[in-house]
Amino acid sequence: MQYAPTVFGDSSGTTSGCPTGLQNLSSNVNAPPYQWSIARMTNALRTGGISAPELAQTHLDRIAARREVNAYINVTGDMATIAAASSDQSRNLPLAGIPIAIKDNITLEGVPCTCGSRMLENWIAPYDATVVERLKAAGAVILGKTNCDEFAMGSSNENSHFGSVQNPNAPGRVPGGSSGGSAAAVADFQAAAALGSDTGGSVRLPAAFCGVVGLKPTYGAVSRWGLVAFASSLDQVGVLGRTVDDTKRVFEVIRGYDPKDSTSMRNLLASPIPETLTIGLPREYYGNGLDPEVRRAVTGTAQALQAAGHRLVDVSLPNSPYTIAAYYIICCAEASANLARYDGVKYGYRSAATQDLSSMYGRTRSEGFGMEVKRRILLGTYVLSAGYFDAYYATAQKVRARIAADFANAFESVDCLLTPTAPTCAFKLGEKLDDPLAMYLMDIYTTSVNLAGLPAISVPCGRSNAGLPIGAQIIGRAFEENLIMSVASGIEEACAM
């Protein structure tokens, strides 16, 4: 592979610097409080430089002033104010007073949990998700529930019943999905950090499009209790932050075993991080279909890591071409089963224009779900049906095992992998809505990580000629989040040079 000239700090090149230089905000004495890093917020709160209610109010004011971004479905202002006043009395907690947003498919007691759908528009969550419990116990202030693609199904955040989210870096373009509201809130200073969910790239893709950091942890590293299920063997709660350090602080609070989640893992120990890493560049991720500007930014990132003393090697993940097909068969099959519970009987939307039970089921699901959700339910039901199960679903699971084996083989000779997060920068709103396959292909570099259950992080690494953010993805072995965050920090430092 030929590596392009380094692009960091070169304003004359086709790509230049990090999208916003957000990692430098903590040293900017003139920045308003809502633009501070979590480290600076914490220091100011502990030393009396600002109170938690004041910090919460600056964020609530920012949310109100930037409604056109449509990052939030519900803002919990009163709840945030009460929590902020309480957190002022416990300043030594790890996230005391830090304003955080929650994707609207994660339950927050007493607040609607809509999943971006008409089906759950009026459903009030009766309990906190485990990750929310842990945030509250750490002193965090919850600002509200963020917009998302319906039931987390989408790559652009255009499938929400509550309207599309605008990319704050480029109005008129998508923020990425499905956690687009969380990414936009963080990028637009409407939250210090946010939780999202990642089933096939739904944290990392919005992070790349919005110019923020997005961590998808190892499957089992973070509890899914209280995360509304889309595809249970793939779903994972993740974190979006403006810096790697911000992201790590939130992750350290929410990670860990939960007896309420049967997929939660007890042993989260990872190997020590070597000073010099061997970083693999999978050749399948740098081929046809990758935008030239994205290629230059990511290969420039590779060269910056090499200049810092790390070793680069070419590797192969030979089953990568089958990833999208396998992923969409498996996730749609699981969605078909998980979403069968929304029938209008016990909770959620129920169609009023019905005459019997059968028509009530049919009309409720037809009216309550959007087009993309119905498309995936139908596809999932088809691949699970008699006569097609072995040809599609069983085959996809065999491919999944081979994809996991590809990663295992690569990690015998490398410490982590560096790839693009997305094949292009953020595209225009409406550009791909009529072409589902083109939309699905936006996940081409992210879905394999979910199929293999591995951790990955997207970190800003450059801009396009049009000033659009570009993200680089670092993939690690299971439970080696600290290693990939360490690499991401190196990229962040190179961007600041």
Structure description:
By secondary structure, the protein is of the alpha/beta class. It has a domain at 22-262: Amidase signature (AS) domain (Amidase signature (AS) enzymes, Alpha-Beta Complex), CATH 3.90.1300.10. 35% of the residues lie in helices and 12% in strands. The protein has an eleven-stranded mixed sheet, sandwiched between helices. α8 links the parallel β7 (278-282) and β8.
Strand content: 5-15%
Low-confidence stretches: 1-17, 19-26
Mean pLDDT: 93
The CATH C-level class name of the domain at 22-262: Alpha Beta
| Classification by helices and strands | alpha/beta
Order of helices and strands: HHEHEHEHEHEEHEHEHHHHEHHEEH
Assign the CATH architecture of the domain at 22-262: Alpha-Beta Complex
CATH-assigned homologous superfamily of the domain at 22-262: Amidase signature (AS) domain
Could you tell me how far the N terminus lies from the C terminus, measured between alpha carbons in angstroms? 25 Å
Number of helices in the DSSP assignment? 15
CATH fold-level label of the domain at 22-262: Amidase signature (AS) enzymes
Q: How can the largest sheet be summarized? A: 11 strands, mixed
Q: What is the C-alpha radius of gyration, as a whole number of Å?
A: 21 Å
Instruction: Compute the number of strand runs.
Output: 11
Query: Share of helix among residues?
Result: 25-40%
Structural shape: globular
Strand order of the largest sheet: 1-3-2-4-6-5-10-11-9-7-8
Quick summary of this structure?
The protein is α/β, with parallel strands linked by helices and 497 residues long. The chain is built from 15 helices and eleven strands.
